[in-house]
Write a structure and sequence with these properties.
Elements: E1 9-10, E2 13-14, H1 15-21, H2 24-33, H3 39-51, H4 57-63, H5 72-86, H6 96-121
Antiparallel strand pairs: 1-2
Length: 124
Amino acid sequence: IDGEKGLLMHRGYPIEDLAMNCNFPEVAFLLIEGELPTPSQLASFTSEIKANWLVHERLLAFFGGFKSDAHPMAIMVGVVGALSAFYPDSVNIHDPTQRRLSAIRLIAKMPTIAAIAYKTSVGK
């Protein structure tokens, strides 16, 4: 980040270039791996995301514990914090393989968690 020059870069790429020329999985891959994916890497990465998108059934019970008018961001923070209890195989932050698995799981599950958090916050 160089605020004086108006620069915001991710892994050496200007954010404007990424926004105009890349999709979400490509940028997520870049943030995790440090480089933009090749077509085969992107296909493999996308498959990993799809394989991890389901939210554990018991995690869904957490949503019922929040007030119906709770802010969706507060709900998301609570649920994301609980993920490590459901996925203890990826809590060692010093292990690059476990860190990557945690990132994949979080990327995969956040759309569902965000949607349910919103529905919970509006009483549905």
